[in-house]
Each structure stands twice: as structure tokens, then as C-alpha cells.
């Protein structure tokens, strides 16, 4: 190791590189130009190959080269570019040099004659951000054949893409990984908006290659019926239909010989079924780890918990310099999100104290900070602090010391809500009826009135997206929108208070009834996989619509229409048990005398789904 360290440091410095950190056997170095970094990488690999390391069966290094901006503080570098190159390097294997698209763009026409860059394609890195085009640096006479890159695309997982970078949780991430190594069931606890889900996802991404059977993410926030929990978990794990065995009994048996990590997100409203299933898995599956997020512990034997704190904020913000302020997680997050909202924003010595004060008054809650940072495009930093302060004074009776965290989050959403135009408030309230997201045409049709046409709905949704109240997912063929769970709960409360919730829920159910009937008539016009893919994003909306229509006998005929329309979807996605449950609920809501044809059709669907279960 001593010889390894001498070789790397000498070679890096020979090419004007600066070693700003070493972590174990890893060297982190900054260069004046990407060309010098490439030359250093070539020479490092050459030096290691020439050295006699046969006593330890050889010694290989993997190298990542990336170009980007970073913040320098006290001889160290920080920022997304530093994290990105570390994630890039982690894809590779010993002896391999990987180059990002940004670095390749600057050096590909000026490489040494013996070197070339090979396109390895687009790969998702473990920062869960947008995929990176990865290039391999190949040198004549050096090894060039390596196993597939260890990216999110090649390792088994269903981790979702994250539109923003991960900030301020280095110590929490380290602690959660440590706890997960010691305990088979770990629950992250914290208030809404504190960042439990994001931390769980990053933990899972970092641990991907130690679980041969993958890491699997289950989102329970849209689920309102506890009976659906086991089905949703089974779906995420890829478990098909079972015969003669309930899913909550079959899942632990299926997992018995697996080695995987299961992330169960937002458990607090379905604690009992999650706790029962987690307990069974812990007892039955010795190589399965469960990482849950909740506002309340599961209360299961063997459960470890980690109370996730808010992001670090300075105790005092007087005369603070920017380089000191940004060392606090809350300020770093505000700065990153503010730049996303307005590229002109920069954290400076002039505004650092005010930004730090805003983060401190928001108690370091990530969601609150993100909502505030979104306002920098319309408010100066001093004005932002002024409006925030006035609002909180009103909500706390003038006592700034009386800000509990949950009240802080509610207060900030209140504040953001009250800054909306009336038509924006109306749309915000109404789109909360969607579970698991919605499309533009769905919002236009369900949330009719002030946004009765698609163009007007787009304008309002774009405005809400800019204000961080709606999240836009444009990374697929058709864009979708959603509310964060904390803001959705807030909007649903507003919708209920307005007296519109039942009528909007009715429109929602009618819309998805038309969606299911349209899909039913279109099943023969496209490949089956494509047909299923058109319906899968709205599974939670179907459940919500069915729950409303068939619950409390609101509209049995409408619920029957949705249930009937989903016949083939349940059949082809292995969810026959859930389908039978909804069909039976529909049969209990419609009378045979009044609706003989509907009842006959429901019985036909029930028989088909039952035969499928028996056949399986």
C-alpha cells in the first residue's frame, strides 16, 4: 500500500494534479485541465502494471475522470461534480479508466496517439440522477476487456430517477449504512418533508452491489386500503399469482433464500399490515434486509430505528461568510435549489447570513427549504426573508422560538399557498385527488372550470411546478405530474374544506372509467406489453377511483364500469386476486334486479379471474 500511494501521488503531481483528499486507498485529485487528468490516468495504470505486486496477486486501480465546477474550501473540494466523479469511478473494475461525457467532449480530439475512447453507452450512476454517457479510455498494450459496468442499469433494482442532487446527509448516510449492516429491519423516522425517502434511496443505491438479488423500492403513500399492501410489495418484487396461499404468507416463503434489500416507503398510514409482513420476513428470511420510512416505528421485534434530524443549520448567522455558510447542509441545499430556480443566483458573502437565517427559521427541513428556494426567481433574498418572517410571526403569535418542525412545514406550505393566484389554488386543491400522479389531459378534464382546456391547465401546472408544489416527470414518453406526499395531504385538506372533494372525486372516477373502457376496446390494436404499460402508471388512480365509487355505496355502477374495464389488466399483470376483490365489492353494490346486465358481466369477469388463479 505504501508503494501504491507513492506511485499515485508522484504520477498525479507530475501532471500538475493536486491530491485534495485520500479515503483509504482512494485518491481524489483535481487538475488544471481534463487532458492532464487523462495523461495522469494513463501513466498511473502503466506504473501499476509495471510494478511487481505478485505478492498480493496483483494490484489494480479503477479511475474516473469528470469535468465540472466544484467549491474549494480549506484545500478540499465539494459539490455535485465531486460526487459525480466518485459515482462514475464506482461503475468500473480494476484497471479500467472511465471518462464522463463532459470530460470526453474536451479531450477527444487531443488524445495521445496510443489512446482512444470507447463509447460504453448511457448508464445511470448511483447518485440516482440523469444517466451519464460513459466512455472507456483504452491504451495500446493495456487490458481493454472488462465485465459490464456496475451501474443501476445492469444491477437488479427498481430505484427511481431523482431529478435533484443529494445534499447534506453524509453523516446520516454513513450511520444508516452502518445500522443496516447490523440489523435486518431498520426504520427511518422523521416528520413529513424531512428527507426520509431520499436518504433511503441513496442508501439503497450505494449498497446495490452487495445484494445479489437486488434492491427493491415499494411506495406505499398512494395506498389507502391496508389490504393492498401485500399486493403492492409482491408487485415490486416481481412475485406472480399464488394458488392456495395468501400473499402475506407467500412473500416470506418466496424471499426465504433471497439476498436482497427491500425499501418500504411511507408506512405510517398502513402500519399494521406492514409490521405483520416485516415481522414474518425477519423471522423467515435471514439474508433479507428491510429499510422502512415512517413517521412512526413499526413496533416489530428486532426493529432498529433512526430518527432523521433536519439538515444542519448554523446556531448564529451574524456576519457569516459564504464559504462557511455552505458547509451547513441546509444552506448547501438552499443554494443548489435556488440555482436550479434561477441561474443568476449565487451564494455570496453579502447574502450568506440572510440565507443561513432563512434556513435556520425553517428548522432545516428539506421540503421547506426547497419551497422557499423556488421563490428566488421572484423575490430578492432580503424580501424572501421578510415575507417568511412575517408569515411565521402570524402563525406563532410572534414567538420565533415556538416553531415546532411540523408546524414549520405546514406554515411554509400555507405561505406558498397564499402566494398563489386563485385559479392556481383551485387547481392545486383539485389535483390532490390523483394518487400516484396524473397527465395533463387528466388534470384538464377532472379539474374542469378555471382550467377547462389543456392549454390553460398546462400554464397553471407549469406555474405550480416552478413553485415546487408540483413535481414534473418528463423522463418518459409522456410527461406526468405529481404532488409530494406532504403537499398532497395539505391540498386534500384544502379540497375537503372547500366542499369540492366529493364532486372532484366523482369526476376523477368518471375519467378513469373512460380510461379503462377505452383501454378495454384497444387491447387488440397494440402489443400486449405496450398496452399494459399505458395503464400501469395509473394503478393507484384506479384503486382510488374504485375505493370512492364502491365505498359507502356512492356509485356502484361507475365502480362496476372501472372494475370491468380492468379485467385484462389484472389478468396480464398477475393481480387476479386484487381484481377478484374489486369485482366482489362491485357485485355487493349493484342490485341484480336494477342492473341485470352489469351483474351478469361482473360474474363473467369474476369467473375468468378465478379460473386464472386456479390455473396458476
How does this structure look, described?
Helix 16 crosses helix 18 and helix 23 runs parallel beside helix 26. This protein folds into five domains: 138 residues, Nucleotide cyclase, GGDEF domain (Alpha-Beta Plaits, 2-Layer Sandwich), CATH 3.30.70.1230; 138 residues, Rossmann fold (3-Layer(aba) Sandwich); 97 residues; 80 residues, Arc Repressor Mutant, subunit A; 114 residues, Serine Threonine Protein Phosphatase 5, Tetratricopeptide repeat (Alpha Horseshoe). With 616 residues, the protein is of the alpha/beta class. 49% of the residues lie in helices and 12% in strands. The N and C termini lie far apart (57 Å). About 3% of the residues have low confidence. The strands form five sheets. The protein has a five-stranded parallel β-sheet with strand order 10-11-12-9-13, with helices on both faces. It is built from 26 helices and 15 strands. A hairpin with a 2-residue loop joins strand 4 and strand 5.
Describe the secondary-structure layout.
Layout: H1 2-14, E1 18-23, E2 26-30, H2 34-50, E3 63-65, E4 71-73, E5 76-78, H3 80-90, E6 97-100, H4 101-107, E7 115-123, E8 132-139, H5 170-182, E9 185-189, H6 196-206, E10 215-219, H7 229-237, H8 247-255, E11 260-265, H9 271-284, E12 288-294, E13 304-307, H10 322-325, H11 329-341, H12 352-361, H13 366-373, H14 381-396, H15 405-418, H16 422-431, H17 440-446, H18 454-466, E14 471-473, E15 480-482, H19 485-497, H20 501-522, H21 528-535, H22 539-550, H23 556-565, H24 567-572, H25 576-589, H26 596-615
Parallel strand pairs: 3-6, 9-12, 9-13, 10-11, 11-12
Antiparallel strand pairs: 1-2, 4-5, 6-8, 7-8, 14-15
Helix pairs in contact: 1-2, 5-6, 8-9, 11-13, 12-14, 13-15, 14-15, 16-18, 16-19, 17-18, 20-22, 20-23, 22-23, 23-25, 23-26, 25-26
Amino acid at each position: 500500500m505504501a508503494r501504491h500511494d507513492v506511485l499515485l501521488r508522484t504520477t498525479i503531481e507530475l501532471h500538475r494534479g493536486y491530491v485534495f483528499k485520500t479515503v483509504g486507498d482512494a485518491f481524489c485529485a483535481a487538475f488544471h485541465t481534463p487532458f492532464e487528468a487523462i495523461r495522469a490516468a494513463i501513466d498511473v495504470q502503466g506504473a501499476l502494471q509495471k510494478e511487481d505486486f505478485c505478492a498480493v496477486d496483483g494490484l489494480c486501480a479503477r479511475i474516473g475522470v469528470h469535468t465540472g465546477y466544484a467549491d474549494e474550501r480549506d484545500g478540499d473540494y465539494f459539490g455535485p461534480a465531486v460526487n459525480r466523479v466518485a459515482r462514475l469511478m464506482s461503475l468500473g473494475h480494476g484497471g479500467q479508466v472511465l471518462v464522463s461525457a463532459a470530460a470526453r467532449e474536451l479531450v477527444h480530439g487531443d488524445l495521445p496517439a496510443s489512446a482512444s475512447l470507447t463509447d460504453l453507452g448511457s448508464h445511470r450512476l448511483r447518485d440516482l440522477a440523469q444517466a451519464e454517457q460513459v466512455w472507456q479510455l483504452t491504451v495500446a498494450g493495456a487490458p481493454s476487456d472488462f465485465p459490464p459496468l456496475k451501474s443501476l442499469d445492469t444491477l437488479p433494482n427498481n430505484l427511481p430517477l431523482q431529478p435533484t442532487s443529494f445534499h447534506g446527509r453524509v453523516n446520516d448516510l454513513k450511520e444508516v449504512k452502518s445500522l443496516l449492516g447490523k440489523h435486518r429491519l431498520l426504520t427511518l423516522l422523521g416528520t413529513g418533508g424531512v428527507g426520509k425517502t431520499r436518504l433511503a434511496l441513496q442508501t439503497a443505491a450505494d449498497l446495490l452491489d452487495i445484494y445479489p438479488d437486488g434492491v427493491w423500492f415499494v411506495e406505499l403513500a398512494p395506498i389507502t386500503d391496508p389490504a393492498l399492501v401485500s399486493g403492492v410489495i409482491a408487485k415490486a418484487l416481481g412475485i406472480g399469482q399464488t394458488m392456495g396461499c395468501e400473499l402475506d404468507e407467500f412473500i416470506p416463503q418466496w424471499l426465504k433464500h433471497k439476498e436482497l434489500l427491500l425499501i418500504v416507503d411511507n408506512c405510517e398510514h398502513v402500519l399494521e399490515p406492514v409490521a405483520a409482513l416485516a415481522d414474518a420476513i425477519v423471522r423467515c428470511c435471514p439474508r433479507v434486509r428491510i429499510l422502512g420510512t415512517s413517521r412512526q416505528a413499526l413496533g416489530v421485534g428486532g426493529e432498529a430505528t433512526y430518527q432523521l434530524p433536519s439538515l444542519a443549520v448554523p446556531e448564529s448567522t451574524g456576519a457569516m461568510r459564504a464559504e462557511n455558510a455552505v458547509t451547513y447542509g441546509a444552506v448547501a441545499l438552499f443554494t443548489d435549489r435556488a440555482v436550479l430556480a434561477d441561474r443568476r443566483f449565487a451564494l455570496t458573502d453579502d447574502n450568506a447570513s440572510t440565507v443561513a437565517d432563512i434556513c435556520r427559521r425553517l428548522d432545516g427541513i428539506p421540503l421547506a427549504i426547497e419551497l422557499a428556494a423556488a421563490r428566488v426567481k421572484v423575490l430578492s433574498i432580503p424580501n424572501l426573508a421578510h415575507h417568511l418572517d412575517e408569515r411565521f410571526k402570524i402563525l406563532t403569535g410572534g414567538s420565533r422560538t415556538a416553531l415546532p418542525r411540523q408546524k414549520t412545514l405546514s406554515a411554509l406550505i400555507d405561505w406558498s399557498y397564499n402566494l398563489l393566484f386563485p385559479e392556481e389554488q383551485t387547481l392545486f386543491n383539485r389535483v390532490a385527488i390523483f394518487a400516484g400522479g396524473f397527465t395533463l389531459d387528466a388534470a384538464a378534464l377532472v379539474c374542469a372550470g378555471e382550467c377547462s382546456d389543456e392549454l390553460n391547465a398546462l400554464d397553471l401546472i407549469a406555474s405550480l411546478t416552478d413553485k415546487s408544489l408540483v413535481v414534473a416527470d418528463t423522463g418518459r414518453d409522456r410527461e406526468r405530474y405529481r404532488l409530494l406526499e406532504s403537499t398532497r395531504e395539505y391540498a386534500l385538506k384544502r379540497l375537503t374544506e372547500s366542499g369540492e372533494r366529493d364532486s372532484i372525486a366523482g369526476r376523477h372516477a368518471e375519467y378513469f372509467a373512460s380510461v379503462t373502457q377505452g383501454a378495454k376496446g384497444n387491447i387488440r390494436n397494440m402489443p400486449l406489453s405496450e398496452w399494459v404499460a399505458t395503464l400501469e402508471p395509473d394503478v393507484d388512480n384506479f384503486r382510488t377511483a374504485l375505493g370512492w365509487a364502491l365505498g359507502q355505496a356512492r356509485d356502484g355502477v361507475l365502480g362496476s364500469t372501472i372494475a370491468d374495464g380492468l379485467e385484462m389488466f389484472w389478468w396480464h399483470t398477475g393481480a387476479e386476486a386484487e381484481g377478484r376483490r374489486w369485482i366482489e365489492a362491485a357485485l355487493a353494490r349493484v342490485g341484480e334486479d336494477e342492473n341485470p346486465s352489469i351483474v351478469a358481466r361482473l360474474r363473467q369477469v369474476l369467473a375468468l379471474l378465478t379460473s386464472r388463479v386456479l390455473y396458476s
